[in-house]
């Protein structure tokens, strides 16, 4: 089967990022994978193509990642990236914690969008850029202040980038999951049965979900698969919310 194109996936060693990489490989994309150096073992276990270690919030790392990708694979047709989460209220969040989540989720997305778009524009045949926002990027939640702010950033950036890059045949979209059954979901507190009452317990979420279950990484990967496809060429600037209609309920 001929490759559908070359996809760069960041934050790919676990959870949603891993599911996206696996799904795109099954779809027929040639993959280039990125994660932190500390995730080297996981990268090597996942990789069947190429891996690049680096931090998406470091501009030189992102530049090197894109250049290395193109040198070895010839082009860049699609980018998807994930993020991080911390669970703390405003009063208990330190400036360092705020800066860290803003750097990875906000600055990291900006840099990936910027350098991916530059490469796609130079290639002259368009492309797909897909970012990671969240239900928390559509409404605020207690104890997710820094995370929510960073995901609102991604939402606005995605809409602006869609306007700027559309004339080059580049679509820019984001996926905005509800609560997904991942390690990050556990760490965030949403899926932990021992939560304090500032965050919704998993059973409460399930009751408010229209389909009465938690989301899975595969649910999100299927959305990214469509946004990466040729069939999505008239869709840009959206933040698709695979959240089982949870956002219509108060929490």
UniProtKB/TrEMBL annotation:
- Entry's Gene Ontology molecular function annotations: oxidoreductase activity, acting on the CH-OH group of donors, NAD or NADP as acceptor; quinone binding
Top-rank taxon, per record: Eukaryota
Q: What Pfam families is this protein classified in?
A: adh_short_C2
Q: Report any one BP term from Gene Ontology.
A: fatty acid biosynthetic process
Membrane-spanning regions, if any?
none
What InterPro entries does this protein map onto? NAD(P)-bd_dom_sf, SDR_fam
Q: Which family does the record claim for this protein?
A: Belongs to the short-chain dehydrogenases/reductases (SDR) family.
Q: What is this protein called?
A: NAD-binding protein
- Organism field: Armillaria borealis
């Amino acid at each position: 089967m001929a490759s559908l194109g070359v996809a760069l996936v960041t934050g790919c060693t676990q959870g949603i990022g891993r599911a996206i990489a696996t799904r795109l490989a099954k779809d027929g994309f040639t993959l280039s994978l990125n994660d932190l150096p500390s995730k080297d073992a996981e990268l090597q276990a996942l990789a069947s193509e190429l891996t690049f270690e680096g931090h998406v919030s470091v501009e030189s790392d992102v530049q090197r990642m894109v250049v290395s990708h193109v040198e070895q694979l010839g082009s860049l047709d699609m980018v998807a990236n994930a993020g991080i989460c911390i669970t703390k209220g405003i009063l208990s969040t330190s400036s360092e914690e705020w800066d860290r989540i803003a750097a990875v989720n906000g600055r990291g997305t900006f840099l990936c969008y910027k350098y991916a778009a530059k490469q796609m524009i130079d290639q002259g045949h368009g492309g797909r850029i897909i970012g990671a926002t969240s239900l928390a990027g559509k409404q605020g939640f207690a104890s997710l202040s820094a995370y929510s702010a960073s995901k609102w950033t991604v939402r606005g950036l995605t809409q602006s980038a869609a306007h700027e890059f559309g004339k080059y045949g580049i679509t820019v979209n984001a996926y905005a999951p509800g609560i997904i059954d991942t390690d990050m979901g556990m760490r965030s507190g949403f899926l932990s049965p021992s939560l304090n009452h500032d965050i919704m317990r998993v059973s409460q979420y399930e009751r408010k979900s229209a389909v009465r279950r938690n989301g899975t990484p595969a649910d999100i990967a299927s959305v990214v698969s469509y946004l990466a496809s040729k069939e999505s060429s008239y869709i840009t600037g959206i933040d698709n919310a695979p959240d089982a209609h949870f956002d219509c309920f108060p929490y």
